[in-house]
Amino acid sequence: RSKDIGRNSYSFFTKEMNQQVSQRLGIETQLRRALSQHEFHLAYQPVMDAASGQMVAVEALLRWNNKELGFVPPDRFIPIAEETGLIVPIGEWVLREATRQVAQWQRHYGLPLRLAVNVSARQFQGEGLLPLLREVLDETGFAPESLELEITERLILNETASNSEQLLRIHEMGVSLSVDDFGTGFSALSYLKRFPFRVLKIDRSFIRDICTDQGDASLTKAIIAMAHGLGLHVIAEGVEEQSQEQFLMASQCDMLQGYYYSRPLPAADIEPFIQRFQQQANTG
Ligand code: C2E
Ligand code: MG
Ligand code: MG
Ligand code: MG
């Protein structure tokens, strides 16, 4: 009888595993052709200034629509793109496309709109990132001061000389560095002092229950105070309700991002936001 159970759970396990492996393979196969098939586009999500209520930046978020798999969310395909190295050419495309688009908005609307782009640890391997950044900024005429690269604690965790060196060079170019998903890693906090970060983004898992969970409320306040003490700006991610906004404003959070303001939207759909921002800027 115990043999039966053993056999059953074994076959159940392999079936699950087979399914996962073939799903993964399917994604990987399609992912290899996605760039040349023009299957990617970018969504943009507004980042709001807490004090003025104005949109001060957009975060570019990668979207993939495949004709066989349909819409595949980033959390499914980005890890595979990272493991296979495909994130390097894909990340290059993201950087080129996002700076091209936002440079166009800046010119058209005459606004100092900032752009945040997510960069994977894998893109720091090899020596390609810096020359790429220089080339892209040159070609698009994008001001380095308006560009922010979001990296997660994982990159900092595997602190190699090369990573540290590249972060410093990027900072010297005038491009800003942000810590994304802050609070979800397990790294010592001292890196915040050692690396030239400008912005700290509090992960949305802390923001979700900020109004009901005393622990999350305290942690969020402490993170904001610590960041300000280090001279960093703070963005709260995943703001979905007015009550969260109120709490964060009262806690001196600098910038806010989340569905409460807007979901990430295709370029054409984000333009009304920029227009409104332009009108506010003109009327003071
Ligand atoms: P992230 O950089 O932390 O981006 C924020 C994620 O939270 C986005 O998910 C966004 O749609 C979602 N979000 C924003 N506001 C809210 C909210 O109020 N509530 C909830 N529940 N979610 C909200 P998305 O677009 O699915 O991206 C997931 C992750 O994939 C990103 O997390 C980022 O780590 C990665 N990613 C996306 N685009 C790129 C890219 O171009 N390059 C790299 N390397 N990674 C990317
Ligand atoms: Mg991000
Ligand atoms: Mg994040
Ligand atoms: Mg994330």
Automatic annotation (TrEMBL):
Residue ranges constituting the EAL domain according to the UniProt record: 24-278
Domain of life, per lineage: Bacteria
Subcellular location(s) of the protein: Cell inner membrane
Protein name as annotated: cyclic-guanylate-specific phosphodiesterase
Lineage: Bacteria, Pseudomonadati, Pseudomonadota, Gammaproteobacteria, Pseudomonadales
